Amino acid sequence: MTARHTHSPFRQLRLLCLLPALLTSTAIHAQPKADVDNDVVATGDIMYQQPHTATFTLRNSGTEPLRILSVEAACGCTAVSWSKEPVAPGTATEIAVTYDAQLLGTFQKEVELRTNASEEPVYLTLQGRVVTTVSDYSDAFPYDLGSVRLTARQIDFGDITIGERAEVEIAVLNDSRNAYHPALMHLPPYLTATYHPETLAGGRSGRITLRLNSERMKHYGLNTTTIYLARRQGDTVGHDNEIAVSSVLLPSFAHLSEAERAAAPVLALDADSLYFGPIGKKRTATRSVSIANNGQRPLTIQSVQVTGSGLDVRLTNRTVQPGKQVRLKVTLHADAYRAAAVPPAILIITNDPAHTKTLLSTSAQL
Length: 366
Known about the structure:
26 strands
């Protein structure tokens, strides 16, 4: 005899009443949560007319993606930048707040941050003091050239397509008591500089704007040069006042039609990195990479360069017909490779619109 179970209508009603509460409870617990590591950043003394940037870290300690809905600064003197991507649970993102330092004196600037974690905003505060002179320049101007200090001695314009222009700024401080006229020497034809102001009184700072005109560059790929900052009239050049400048010039494909893009060459490598294995006492080691063309038009390898020292490259042919391949031979020189600060890589520039720039990493057991 089989037992039969029946359910009381009162029991069913009770379960139906409990269901919305359970759903509500689940919804409450499954949500993003916004936490700021430090909602107040004190900059201390910063130089007049030298914009200062503080970084705030926003963490999502909830269980659903956190989205930044808006970030609003209290005034136009404060600029804000942040990622528009959702912040996954357990991860963080950064919000950069920059004060333009155009007014002398104490400042306190607030930024209102709204997220999907709460209807209440989060406030980020940047506070400090703008001064004309500071007693310790090592943080704001870490590079000491003698009577002049800089915020940077390595300038990287990054990737730039032929026809484009770019500019970067570095700040300069006159660390002497005499008037100083900043001037960059040995600028190549594709670089120009302007100075704001053109004369710096003792203890004052200014800006140097360096502009790059890609149309005046001659070679695709990595372009590096060394320029020099004159610290006084008649100054000479040397390691103590040099500034390294780099950029990667890429071809432009803006003129291509859709049909031309569909028929374009397609670069294909048989490896995206090179491992030379144990070197031991060997002075050299050699590896090779196959460069194939899977497209419909000839592939032109416009540049093959080594970003660093310790490698030599040799290419059998710079033009690869459709369906064909060429070999890139790479030779490692052990002593120079060991001396490199970071393992050198191989930069390949081609006329493939989808693979204009390819970077081939290298490694070895030294």
